[in-house]
């Protein structure tokens, strides 16, 4: 029993999946408007052809009702609808749409002329007014309005002018059945078209949302490293400046220009990507890291003191120095100089960035491959750093100025 239920569930999922793929093939947002219109014209022509064949089978029961002319019209119409299907499959969307819609209108007028408005075939013209917005593209808008106006005029003529000749001998009860069938099919067709419009609208909204998300991602993300760029980082800084204590660190790769000049930008890009990956692996979920520009990175550490921030940056500096980065037959090791500054909820995040940049300069002056700090009270010029006892630095043993 469980096996049978599992098989039935799998079969149901497969059927629904195939149906979804079929719908996407015709109306998917990934397709152009012309492609969607082509498949809609194809499906309408096929539907009209099969429906015409159904009517022909039904009319055979009225062999003695004087419907010979209507029978000939519908045989011709079925052939034209199938021809429209072939045209659509060959990419001739406009020709297929014109043939299918024109043939359908002629069929309706011929049927009303023979059977009378009581047959209800002219009700299809209501759906036709909606249909032409689907099977004609925006570039073919004049054809839309031509057929909408034609459908309106045809509907009025069928309802008020056309009347069957005296040779009609179809019983009223049979016409009532035909009217009911046509009314139901018209309702189904209009509902299907409304659903199609609804689906396309949702697909267009989803596609617009995806495009907006992609554009925002590209605008806010450095493509090379996958890190944030300046804009979201500045926003993060402003938010941190309003929430409490935080730390800003600016890291710069030492002698990066020389690496680029000697081994090329391809290797330089690999180095940047590897260092960025190291930052992402080490930092907390609540931290923000991004590429500040060139070979500089910036880190925002919320709810963090300057000593804790400097210790974390020291770990990152050591990690970068120990990382071996292969590129085109070479391996590279790089060092970083890092400046660290702290801030509070004073709304002056740009001051914190300035102090972190000054601390970075201190690390460069001290010999590179170092972490330097500038606390809240430490805003002296970088050249007076050596005489500033409040400015602390953490350096790797053995590093020397001018390295």
Automatic annotation (TrEMBL):
Pfam families given for it? GGDEF (PF00990), MASE7 (PF20967)
**Which UniProt key words apply to this protein?**
Membrane, Transmembrane, Transmembrane helix
Q: PROSITE patterns under this entry?
A: GGDEF (PS50887)
Q: Which Gene3D superfamilies match?
A: 3.30.70.270
- GGDEF domain residues are 244-376
**Record region (Disordered):** 376-403
* GO MF annotation terms: diguanylate cyclase activity
Where would you find the membrane-spanning parts of this chain?
Answer: 44-61, 67-87, 94-115, 121-138, 145-163, 175-198
Q: Which SMART domains match?
A: GGDEF (SM00267)
Q: Which InterPro entries match?
A: Diguanylate_Cyclase, GGDEF_dom, MASE7, Nucleotide_cyclase, Rev_trsase/Diguanyl_cyclase
> SUPFAM superfamilies of this UniProt entry?
Nucleotide cyclase (SSF55073)
Q: What is this protein called?
A: Diguanylate cyclase (GGDEF)-like protein
- Matching CDD domains, A to Z? GGDEF
Annotated organism of origin: Demequina lutea
């Amino acid at each position: 029993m469980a096996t049978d239920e599992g098989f039935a569930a799998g079969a149901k999922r497969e059927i629904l999946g195939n149906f979804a793929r079929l719908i996407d093939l015709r109306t998917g947002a990934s397709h152009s408007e012309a492609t969607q219109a082509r498949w809609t014209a194809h499906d309408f022509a096929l539907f009209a052809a099969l429906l015409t064949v159904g009517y022909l089978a039904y009319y055979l029961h009225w062999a003695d009702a004087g419907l010979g002319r209507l029978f000939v019209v519908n045989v011709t119409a079925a052939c034209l609808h199938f021809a429209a299907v072939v045209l659509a499959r060959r990419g001739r969307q406009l020709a297929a749409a014109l043939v299918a819609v024109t043939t359908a209108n002629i069929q309706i007028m011929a049927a009303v002329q023979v059977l009378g408005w009581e047959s209800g075939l002219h009700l299809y013209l209501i759906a036709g007014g909606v249909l032409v917005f689907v099977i004609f593209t925006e570039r073919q808008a004049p054809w839309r309005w031509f057929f909408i106006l034609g459908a309106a005029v045809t509907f009025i003529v069928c309802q008020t002018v056309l009347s069957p000749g005296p040779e009609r001998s179809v019983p009223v009860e049979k016409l009532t059945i035909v009217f009911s069938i046509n009314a139901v099919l018209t309702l189904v067709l209009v509902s299907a078209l409304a659903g199609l419009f609804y689906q396309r609208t949702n697909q267009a909204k989803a596609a617009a949302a995806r495009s907006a998300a992609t554009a925002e991602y590209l605008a806010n993300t450095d493509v090379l490293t996958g890190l944030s760029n300046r804009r979201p980082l500045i926003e993060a800084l402003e938010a941190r400046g309003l929430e409490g204590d935080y730390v800003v660190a600016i890291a710069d790769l030492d002698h990066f220009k020389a690496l680029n000049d000697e081994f090329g930008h391809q290797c330089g890009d690999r180095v940047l990507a590897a260092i960025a990956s190291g930052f992402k692996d080490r930092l907390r979920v609540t931290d923000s890291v991004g590429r500040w520009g060139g070979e500089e990175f910036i880190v925002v550490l919320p709810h963090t003191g300057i000593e804790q921030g400097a210790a974390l940056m020291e770990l990152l500096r050591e990690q970068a120095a120990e990382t071996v980065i292969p590129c085109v037959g070479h391996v590279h090791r790089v060092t970083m100089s890092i400046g660290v500054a702290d801030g509070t909820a004073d709304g002056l995040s740009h001051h914190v960035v300035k102090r972190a940049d000054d601390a970075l300069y201190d690390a460069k002056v001290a010999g590179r491959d170092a972490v330097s700090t500038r606390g809240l009270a430490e805003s002296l010029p970088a050249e007076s750093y050596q005489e500033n006892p409040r400015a602390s630095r953490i350096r790797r043993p053995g590093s020397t100025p001018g390295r």
